[in-house]
Specification:
By secondary structure, this protein is α/β, with parallel strands linked by helices. It contains 21 helices and 29 strands. The chain folds into four domains: about 20-180, 2-Layer Sandwich (Chitobiase, domain 2), CATH 3.30.379.10; about 185-475, TIM Barrel (Alpha-Beta Barrel); about 510-670; about 675-800, Immunoglobulin-like (Sandwich).
C-alpha cells in the first residue's frame, strides 16, 4: 500500500513538473503581434526584438533582484511584483520562470551571470540610464543597467509589455531583447502639477522635477531653506531627480531678506516693478552671496538633492548703484550664484548647479554665459520666447553654439497652447518638432511647462516623454496609436488619425496666438479701429489665405466625425474647441475686412455684416461651451483661474466685436448669454470694515426675463474674497433708496487664485420699465493696511451672463 502511494505521489509530481514545463514552452511572436506589443511601450526603446513568448501561471514566475541591490533597484522589483498582484492576484515568487534585475558589474555580469550587451552600456549616451533586457534560455529574463536608473527603466519597459498580458491567473512573458538609452539626459517639468506627477513621469522614463521650496531668513540673519523631504525621497526611489529652485532673484523681497538687510535691495526706480511688487537685488552687496550660500547648503543637506537651480531676475530690472550699472545686473547675479555655489560645495562637494536665463537677461545672455564655469548648467527660459507654440525654432544661435561646444544646456518650453490660457491641444507634430530640435542641437535637459495640470495635456506630455527619450523612433501617427492603445480607446488607429489630422489645425490656431494674446483685446480693437486684417500676420499668422481657413475647417469636420465614434468626451470637446476657434478666426477676418476704413455701409453691406456677426456670435458661444465640456470631461475645476479666463476672453471677444459694430446698426442677439463685467471690488472697500455690502447697477444687462449667473473673479492682490449671499434687487428710477430684492442665492464662497462656490444664480421673472436693477452682494475682504507690504491687495471683478438655452434650443438671431 505504501509502495503504491509512493508511486502515486511520484507520478503526480512528474505530471506537475511536466505541466509546468509545458506551460512555459516558448511560442513564436509574429510580426503583427510584435507591432501590437510595441504599442504598449512609451517611450519606444531604441532597439527591440522578440524571440518568442511563454505563457504560464503568474504564481510560477519569480521576480528577484541581485544581491546587494540598492533602494531604487528594490523599488523597481517591487513595482513589477505589484503588477502581478494587481493583475493576477498572485505573488511572483515562483521558480518556473525567473525575472532577475539589477546593476551589472563592469564585466557585464549580473549576479555572476553574463548579460549579452551589458558590458557595452558604458559606451552609450547617458550610460547611467542605459539598460538591456535579455532572455536566457526559455525560462529566464535578465534586466540590467550600468546604474540603478537604468535598472529602473528596464523594469518600466517590462511592466508596460506585461500590462495587457494577464488573463485567468496566467501571464504571457515576452522573450524580448532590448538595448535602450535616452537622447536627453534630463526630461521633466516644473510648475503646474509637477510635484504630484512623480510616479507618472517615472513610469514614462522621465526623471526631473524642478520644484519651488520655502526660502526665508532667520532672526540672526541667516538664509534658511525648507524642502519637502518626503517628496524628495519619493523622487529618489523612482530614479527621478528633484531639483530645488532658488526663485527669481527679483522676488527675494518675499523672503524677508530686505527687512534684515535693507542694503541688499536694488537702488533706484529701475530696480522696482510696482505692478508686480518685485525689486531687483543689489548684488554689489557681498552679504547676498552669503545668504544664497546659506540656502544652497540647507537644500544640499537633503538626501537625494544633487543639484540646485537658481533663477535670474525675471523682469528687465536693474539696480542703479554705480557698481551694478557698470558691471551689469545679470552679470553680477550669475557671478554671485556661482560664488555662493562654490561656498556651498565646501560642505557638499558633489552639489551641482544650473542657472536659469530669463526674458530680463535675454539681451545680456552672452555676458551671463561668460560667467558660467565648466560644470555648471544653463537652462533657457524666456516668457515670450520659450512659452511659445509657433513653428519658429526655439534655440537661437548664441545658445546653439553654446550647446554645440559641449556645454550643458536645458530649455523650459511650454508643451501646451499657451502659458496664459488653458485650451485643449493634442499636437503630435508640435511636440515632435520641439523635441527633435532640442536633441539635434545638443541640449541635455527638457523642463516642460504644463499649466495648470498635466491631466489636461496628457497627450502632449506623453509625446514629450516619447521623443525626448527616442527622437528618431516613431512618427506622429505611430506615437498617437501607442497613446490611444495605452489609454484604452476602442480604436487606436482611428484615434491616431484624429490626432494627426487635428494636430496641425491646433498648431495653426495656437501658433497664431489665438486666443492668447489675440483675444485679450487685440481682435476687437482691430474691428473698432476699422483696421484692415492681414492674412499671414498677427492673429492670422498661420492662415495665409481664406482657402487655408476653410481647409482647416474641413479637417475639423473630419476629425469631429472620428471623435464622435471614439466615445471619448474629451477628444470630442477638444475638436469642437479647435473647430470653434478656426470659425471665429474666419468670421473675425470677414468682419474686419468688411468695415476696414469705412464709416458708413450700404444696406447690402450692413446685411452681410449682420450675417457674419450672427455667425461669429453663435460660433463663439459654442466654443465657450465646448471649453467647459472639455474641462468637465477631465476634471471639473481642474483648469483653475486661467481656464476661467480662457472662457471669459472667448466670450468677451464676441461681445466686444458686437459692441464695436453697433454704430453700423448691427446687433449681437446673444449678447445676454455672454459674460460681461458689471462691477469690481478693490482693496479700499475693506479699510473701514472687512465685511461689507456692495451693489452694482446691472439694468442695461437685464434685457429680458430669465435666469442669470453671477460670478466673482479674483484679479490681483495677495488676498482673496469671501462671499455670503447675492441678491438681484430693483428700485424705482426716481427713488433708488426703495430697494426690493426679487431673487436671492445664499451660500458661502471663496474667491482667489483657486475659487470654490463663486457662481451665484438669480432669476428675473418679469422685466419692468422705469426701474433700476442691482446686484447686491454680502462680501468680506481683507484690510490691507494691517498686512506686510508684500501681502496686501484684495481686488477682483463681478460678471454676469444669462443662462444659455437648454439643449436643442438656440439663442434668437
Amino acid at each position: 500500500m505504501y509502495r503504491d502511494l509512493g508511486l502515486l505521489t511520484l507520478g503526480l509530481l512528474l505530471v506537475s513538473l511536466l505541466a509546468a514545463r509545458a506551460s512555459a514552452a516558448p511560442e513564436p511572436v509574429s510580426a503583427e503581434e510584435s507591432a501590437a506589443w510595441q504599442r504598449w511601450l512609451i517611450p519606444l526603446p531604441k532597439q527591440i526584438s522578440f524571440q518568442g513568448k511563454v505563457t504560464l501561471p503568474a504564481a510560477q514566475v519569480g521576480v528577484r533582484v541581485r544581491s546587494g541591490a540598492g533602494e531604487v533597484e528594490q523599488n523597481a522589483a517591487g513595482e513589477l511584483r505589484d503588477l502581478f498582484t494587481e493583475k493576477a492576484g498572485a505573488e511572483p515568487a515562483g521558480s518556473v520562470f525567473e525575472i532577475l534585475l539589477g546593476v551589472c558589474g563592469e564585466d557585464g555580469k549580473l549576479d555572476g551571470t553574463p548579460v549579452d550587451g551589458a558590458s557595452d552600456l558604458a559606451k552609450l549616451p547617458n550610460p547611467a540610464q542605459a539598460y538591456v533586457i535579455r532572455p536566457v534560455g526559455e525560462n529566464r529574463l535578465l534586466l540590467a543597467g550600468r546604474g540603478e536608473a537604468g535598472v529602473y527603466y528596464a523594469a518600466q519597459t517590462l511592466r508596460q509589455l506585461l500590462e495587457s498580458r494577464f488573463a485567468d491567473g496566467r501571464v504571457t512573458i515576452p522573450l524580448v531583447t532590448v538595448t535602450d538609452w535616452p537622447d536627453l539626459a534630463e526630461r521633466g517639468q516644473w510648475g503646474g502639477s509637477a510635484n504630484d506627477d512623480i510616479e507618472w513621469m517615472a513610469a514614462h522614463k522621465m526623471n526631473l522635477v524642478e520644484s519651488h521650496v520655502t526660502l526665508k531668513m532667520s532672526e540672526d540673519g541667516r538664509g534658511v531653506a525648507e524642502a519637502d523631504t518626503d517628496r524628495i525621497r519619493l523622487a529618489r526611489l523612482h530614479a527621478l531627480k528633484l531639483v530645488p529652485i532658488i526663485t527669481h532673484l527679483d522676488h527675494l523681497g518675499r523672503t524677508g531678506l530686505y527687512d534684515i538687510y535693507p542694503e541688499c535691495r536694488g537702488k533706484g526706480e529701475k530696480a522696482r516693478h510696482a505692478e508686480y511688487d518685485v525689486v531687483a537685488p543689489c548684488f554689489s552687496e557681498p552679504k547676498l552671496w552669503d545668504v544664497l550660500a546659506d540656502w544652497m547648503v540647507d537644500l544640499a543637506g537633503h538626501e537625494g538633492v544633487t543639484d540646485i537651480c537658481a533663477w535670474l531676475t525675471e523682469l528687465a530690472l536693474h539696480c542703479e548703484c554705480e557698481n551694478c550699472q557698470r558691471e551689469g545686473q545679470y552679470t553680477l547675479e550669475a557671478r554671485a550664484i556661482v560664488k555662493a555655489w562654490r561656498q556651498a560645495r565646501e560642505k557638499h562637494p558633489a552639489l551641482g548647479l544650473r542657472i536659469l536665463l530669463t526674458q530680463g537677461s535675454y539681451s545680456t545672455n552672452d555676458k551671463v554665459l561668460a560667467e558660467v564655469p565648466d560644470g555648471v548648467g544653463v537652462t533657457y527660459y524666456d516668457g515670450g520666447r520659450t512659452y511659445d507654440s509657433s513653428r519658429d525654432p526655439m534655440i537661437y544661435p548664441l545658445l546653439e553654439e553654446y550647446a554645440a561646444s559641449g556645454h550643458w544646456l536645458g530649455c523650459y518650453p511650454q508643451l501646451t497652447a499657451s502659458w496664459r490660457i488653458v485650451c485643449p491641444w493634442s499636437g503630435p507634430q508640435f511636440v515632435r518638432y520641439r523635441m527633435t530640435e532640442f536633441v539635434d542641437k545638443g541640449l541635455q535637459c527638457l523642463v516642460g511647462y504644463l499649466t495648470p495640470n498635466r491631466l489636461l495635456y496628457d497627450f502632449n506630455f506623453t509625446a514629450a516623454a516619447e521623443w525626448s527619450w527616442n527622437s528618431g523612433g516613431r512618427n506622429e501617427r505611430e506615437l498617437a496609436a501607442a497613446w490611444a492603445t495605452r489609454r484604452g480607446l476602442k480604436d487606436p488607429d482611428a484615434a491616431a488619425e484624429w490626432a494627426v489630422m487635428l494636430g496641425p489645425v491646433g498648431w495653426d490656431v495656437y501658433g497664431s496666438r489665438v486666443p492668447y494674446s489675440a483675444f485679450f483685446g487685440g481682435a476687437a480693437q482691430m474691428v473698432a479701429k476699422r483696421a484692415a486684417p492681414k492674412l499671414g500676420e498677427g492673429m492670422f499668422r498661420y492662415f495665409p489665405t481664406v482657402e487655408h481657413v476653410d481647409e482647416d475647417l474641413g479637417a475639423c469636420a473630419r476629425a469631429l466625425a472620428i471623435a464622435q465614434d471614439l466615445d471619448a468626451p474629451d477628444l470630442l470637446a477638444e475638436t469642437r474647441v479647435i473647430q470653434g476657434y478656426v470659425g471665429m478666426i474666419k468670421y473675425i477676418h470677414a468682419i474686419a475686412a468688411r468695415v476696414a476704413g469705412k464709416q458708413d455701409l450700404s444696406d447690402e453691406e450692413r446685411a452681410a455684416l449682420q450675417e457674419d456677426m450672427s455667425r461669429l456670435a453663435m460660433v463663439g458661444l459654442a466654443t465657450a461651451q465646448a471649453l467647459r465640456d472639455w474641462e468637465a470631461s477631465i476634471g471639473q475645476g481642474i483648469g483653475g483661474a486661467r481656464f476661467t479666463d480662457t472662457v471669459d476672453v472667448t466670450e468677451k471677444t464676441v461681445a466686444d466685436i458686437g459692441d464695436a459694430l453697433a454704430p453700423y446698426g448691427v446687433t449681437n442677439a446673444i449678447r445676454p448669454y455672454l459674460r460681461s463685467t458689471v462691477g469690481e471690488w478693490v482693496s479700499d472697500d475693506f479699510e473701514q470694515q472687512e465685511r461689507v455690502t456692495k451693489s452694482w447697477d446691472v439694468t442695461d444687462r437685464l434685457s429680458e426675463p430669465g435666469e442669470y449667473t453671477i460670478g466673482f473673479k479674483y484679479t490681483t492682490g495677495w488676498n482673496g474674497l469671501h462671499v455670503y449671499r447675492v441678491a438681484l434687487a430693483l428700485a424705482p428710477a426716481d427713488a433708488p433708496e426703495q430697494i426690493t430684492e426679487v431673487s436671492v442665492d445664499e451660500h458661502e464662497a471663496s474667491v482667489g487664485y483657486r475659487s470654490e462656490g463663486n457662481l451665484y444664480s438669480v432669476k428675473l421673472e418679469d422685466r419692468k420699465d422705469g426701474v433700476t436693477y442691482f446686484i447686491i452682494a454680502d462680501i468680506q475682504g481683507v484690510r490691507s493696511s494691517d498686512k506686510p507690504e508684500n501681502r496686501r491687495g484684495c481686488n477682483g471683478e463681478v460678471w454676469m451672463r444669462k443662462l444659455a438655452p437648454a439643449a436643442g434650443e438656440e439663442p434668437p438671431l
